């Protein structure tokens, strides 16, 4: 029996009529194959990891930057003027100074964000990809603001809370990493922690619902209004934050 890889590599040398493709088309197909291989390998590493290694998640995320799915996602994002504007501007704030943010009022986004990271012993996230395309910009920006999204939506940083936030991402702009992390979590939870599946599904459902009704968070310049209360941000963005994930009743 022919392997899937053999069939794929054979198919890249000819088009549907059986005629050889131009060298450029062959090269594009080969590059796409290796992109898929790289992403699949990274996905399996995350699936088999039982230590919560964030470096593996970053590897998976980085492997998707040049993926066609991400490119299509960014094109669809531009249908919203405010999102198209921030992508065109490629707005990136300076690294977040957590110490300075702790000087803001306690109900402000700046203070809440900084204090939550300090309490959890976490540092700000910085993407390790060069911004030289729309997809690489979106990759950098969502990572820079990821923990702000946690604050605004109310999803905590537990495994289930993280997947709830990924469902929010998926509803907002179909981030490829989000769908892969959700798929990964569904597989691992079903096989290893089936008693947690109901809570996981509830988090996914809630995140998707919230993301569908909220204004686009990727378009926000949070750093220009650190002093604004979290509750005001939530009201302006049409978000009812989640405080507790309830299991699906069966």
Summarize the structure in words.
The structure is a single chain. The chain is mostly helical and 250 residues long. 62% of the residues lie in helices and 0% in strands.
Quick tags:
single chain, 250 residues, mainly alpha, 13 helices, 0% strand, disordered N terminus
Quote the beta fraction. Answer: under 5%
Rounded to an integer in angstroms, the radius of gyration calculated over CA atoms is 20 Å
What is the percent of helical residues? 55-70%
Query: Mean pLDDT, nearest integer?
Result: 83
Would you list the SSEs in sequence order as H and E? HHHHHHHHHHHHH
Distance between the termini: 44 Å
Please describe the topology of this protein.
Blueprint: H1 4-11, H2 23-48, H3 54-63, H4 68-77, H5 81-89, H6 98-101, H7 109-120, H8 134-144, H9 146-153, H10 159-173, H11 176-192, H12 197-213, H13 230-236
Short note summarizing the structure:
The chain has about 250 residues and is mostly helical. The protein has 13 helices and no strands. The protein is globular.
């Amino acid at each position: 029996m022919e392997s899937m890889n053999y069939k794929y590599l054979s198919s890249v040398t000819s088009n549907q009529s059986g005629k050889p493709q131009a060298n450029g088309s062959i090269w594009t197909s080969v590059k796409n194959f290796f992109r898929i291989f790289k992403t699949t390998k990274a996905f399996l590493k995350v699936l088999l990891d039982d230590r919560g290694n964030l470096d593996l998640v970053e590897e998976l995320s980085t492997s998707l930057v040049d993926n066609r799915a991400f490119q299509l996602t960014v094109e669809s994002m531009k249908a919203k003027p405010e999102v198209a504007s921030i992508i065109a501007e490629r707005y990136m704030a300076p690294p977040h100074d957590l110490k300075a943010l702790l000087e803001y009022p306690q109900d402000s986004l700046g203070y809440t964000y900084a204090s939550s990271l300090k309490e959890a012993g976490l540092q700000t996230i910085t993407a390790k990809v060069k911004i030289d395309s729309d997809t690489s910009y979106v990759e950098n920006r969502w990572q820079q603001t990821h923990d702000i999204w946690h604050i605004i939506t109310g999803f905590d940083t537990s495994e289930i809370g993280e997947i709830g936030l990924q469902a929010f991402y998926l509803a907002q702009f179909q981030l490829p990493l989000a769908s892969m992390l959700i798929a990964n979590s569904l597989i691992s939870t079903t096989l290893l922690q089936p008693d947690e599946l109901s809570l996981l599904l509830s988090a996914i459902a809630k995140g998707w619902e919230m993301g569908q009704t909220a204004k686009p968070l990727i378009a926000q310049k949070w750093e220009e209004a650190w002093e604004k209360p979290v509750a005001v941000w939530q009201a302006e963005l049409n978000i009812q934050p989640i405080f507790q994930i309830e299991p699906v009743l069966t």
